[in-house]
Amino acid sequence: MELPGLAFAVWMLICFYAPVGGYPNGKVREACTSMVPCHGSSPQLSPEHTITVNGTEFKPGDSIEVHLSGPVFEGFFIQARDAEHLESPALGSFMLADRGVSQLLTCAHTKNSAVSHTSKAKKKHIKVYWIAPGNAPKRVQFLATVVKKYKIFWVKIPGPIVSQPNALSPTPPLHATSEAVSTSHPVSYLSKPFNASSCGRTKFCIRNPSNCDPESASCFFLSFQQEGSSVFIEMSGPSEGYLAFALSHDQWMGDDDAYLCVGEDHRVRAITAYLKERSPPVLDSENALEDVSWRLADGLLQCSFRRSIHLPAHKGRFNLDASYYIFLADGEASEGGVIHKHQQQPLITNGIYNITGLPQDIGGSRSPRLIKAHGALMFIAWITTVSIGVIVARFFKPVWSYSFLFGKEMWFQVHRMLMLTTVMLTSISFVLPFIYRGGWSQQAGFHPYLGCTVMALAIFQALMAGFRPSRHAPRRQLFNWFHWCTGTAARILAGKQVQ
Prior knowledge:
By secondary structure, the protein is of the alpha+beta class. Helices cover 23% and strands 33% of the residues. The longest helix has 28 residues, at 410-437. It starts with a helix and ends with a helix.
């Protein structure tokens, strides 16, 4: 076989076995470099689809509106690359205009650096936004792979070239619209990510995971640095919507001083707010923040601002020279900067701290120790001990009927010991959330009600077992049914709670 034929055969073999082949859900990260869908056929030569943008120049942090349009197609894959080195990795990050038809992917370890389809539903037009990174090359070109049908597709359709100001443009941009995009902002743009080199020395820092690098796309970072009568604050994290931190007198939400950095219209807005119980934050009409800067790149939302230590004219703003618990949360924001409830438990410091005091480098927990202990004890009780106890009663009764322990049949003694252990662990676990919350929680949904039901059933089961009739008593059959029904109901409810 000639060398070109051999190379083509190898390419076909790789495509046949590659895991990206025929992915209707668009999760084609394995094709990040080649942008070739492994559909077992060669790409078409003459593109039918075009890429357009709404500007020809950009600066780091600017937002470019990108459109892909043409005859009906099923799948697509969009990236931005260095126009002088099109084989280089994808750069910058994208934001979605319609989550129903497009999704963000991570290519070359850069979060949100590519966009693809969410399903094979037919479409004619896609709109996304590209955010220029701080280290962008002088000229950037958009590329797209479009799948019309499984065997009909185009690879790396060349799109417009956009340039930084004063960059040389040897070739005019393709398909670029004449409309210029204005991306100047009243606040400044951060040219590079934050760093943690001063944490514990001149900065008070909170990091999650502990000691993570704020340049990492998985690091939540919050720092405070006193500068005279004000505090300079930096906040960073992997978020497409908003980041927020709050100062609190206790470890649960309510009556807190909050600060939010919200992604809005492809820029970031820093605002202050007041938290009242677990309701949405009440945003301030007057902003007390100064020197606001921001950055949206590489899957990170970063912002910094300055706040005076004392703000007597602003109601609800805490003095920064006192000690507080510190919350750090993230969540989604819809069009127009409307924020939604955070999807994961906020990070909460384990103690109270004075951010203007001794610089420290600390972490936090998204689940307080008492709640962790509550969950661990419930898991041991209702997944481990109760399950073993049921197995012993069900399958070991014939085996251990003639073995005795302390004057009783072996199976019964083991079963009783495991079930009493379950009741004891459940009782301890039941008390812990009340200690943590200081009473009944009105915002925990059905969980506390089901927990009380499980606790009541466990105690009733133990009391009922204490009055168990003898084996041949007339009421023994009735006891057996009640014993089984109560135990089964408790196990079902407890299993649902543990989930």
